[in-house]
Each structure stands twice: as C-alpha cells, then as structure tokens.
Amino acid sequence: MELRKALTDNVVVLDGGMSTALEQAGHDLSDSLWSARLLLTAPDAIRAAHLAYFHAGAQVAITSSYQATFEGFAERGLSPEQTANLLRASVSLARAAASEVDGPRWVAASVGPYGAMLADGSEYRGRYGLSARRLEEFHRPRVEVLADAAPDLLAVETIPDVDEAEAVLRVVAGSGVPMWLSYSVRDGRTCAGQDLEDAFAVAAGVSEVVAVGVNCCRPEDVDEAVEVARRVTGLPVVVYPNSGEQWNASARAWEGGAAAVAEPARQWVEAGARLVGGCCQVGPSDIARLAATLTSHEG
User: Which residues does Zn(2+) bind (predicted)?
Assistant: First the structure.
C-alpha cells in the first residue's frame, strides 16, 4: 500500500533513533560520521537495528543515511561512486529488514541537514551562512541517489532553518518522489528562530510533500507544532521527538532528564499527527510502548 493512502485512515508508527538502537547493541558511535560509519564497517548491525524496531511495532524504517554525505565520506578517502553505493545500501538494508516481518512496512530515506555533516550541533542552530545555491548543491546529489534507490519516500528531517527547507524542496519538487519535511524546533519556533507558520507554509503546494512536522525536539515542543502544521498545510503531520534530553555537541553526549513519548502521543494523534515515532534516545523498547499505546487508543 502506498504510504500516502495509508495516512488517510490510519496512524503509522515510525521507528526510533538509529544511533540509540546501535549504541544499545554495543556499537561505538564516537565518530563524526556517527551511525553512517557503520554503513562502511558493520552494515549487518544497521539491518539488525531496523529489524529490532520492526519487531517492536514500527511500520516505517528511517534509513541510516542521515549523516551520510559525499563530503563526509570523501574526508575518509571514499570516491563519489563508493559513497553513492553506501547511500543505496542504506535503503536496501532497511528494505531487507522489512522483508523479514509481516504486515505493511515502508522505508523512508533519511535526508539530514547540512549541519549534520558538520558534526558540531549545527542542526540545532541553522543559519549556516551559505547561499541558497550552495545548499541546493549540497543536497541535490544525495537526494538523487537516494531517490534512485527506490525508497517509499524521503524523510527530509531535523531541518533547523526555513532557507534550507526551501533549498531541499527545490531539489525534490517535480521529481515525483514523495517526501516528508520535518523541522527541528524549540519553544514554538524553528531552531534558527523562525516562525512556524512561515516554516510550514513553504511546503504548501509542493505535490511531493505527503506530511510535515517536527523531530529531534523535546516532547513538550510537539503540541504547538502539530496544530500549526495541520492548520497551515492541511497535510498529515509527522512527529518523532527525542526523549527530552539535550545534545551537548562539545561533550558529544546527551544531558538532562528523559521523558516518555508514548503517553503524549495520544494527544498528538488527536491533534492531527498521523506518523508518530521517536528520535534520539528513543529505542526499540520505547517504540514498543508507543505502538501499544496507539493501538489501544485506536481500539
């Protein structure tokens, strides 16, 4: 079933943080490539992480390509062709895991922000000082390779800045490849400080966009974003917050207390969320609780 059609009548459960599942399985991700490094060194671990989320009740696997870029892998000596192969592998690994479970499953190819490649927390700030043309040049080759790998859709995620959202939309518009657009937000604005109404409005009228929303934010930042996204675009809303902890880029560690995502998810669904999951520090056991909560809520 096409995901766009599924969203008309159903709530679809997303997975949790790829890095979280990998760390819980004992993998060291203290590297600027983060979980994308395992595409090169331990692809079976990525497949296993996807499978753990599917067994937990997730219906959508977000690929391990968030921090996989031509620039990042070039610094490790990889050619553009080798990088393209790794990007394609991120989709095929998720697809392989999906084939091992029953029921409808979808693969969303992660398109992370420019700031993720910098590995300095810039995805929580935006305002990189780059031109619109440079942002398009950064995103286009990766989007083209991922789209060619035939995922069910592109997950354009953790975008902190309206300028970057517009750049990615220009790359995807007219391609016919479905996508969702998800911002990183804080206190009712994008992480770059922009108005949420303006941020979501850029997706209106782009036929490839099947959902808009937020991710990699605190759970308490979700409610307002759902309301604004639904009102401005009329599209299904995607939400997958962090556990509530905050990323310290200097220490490369999560700090602060965690909060459950399962219980507030009922409220998000009632407000218009149709794709619901978790991001950083949300693992398979958390997704199992979320899936059970949403199933009982629908019942």
Answer: 216, 279-280
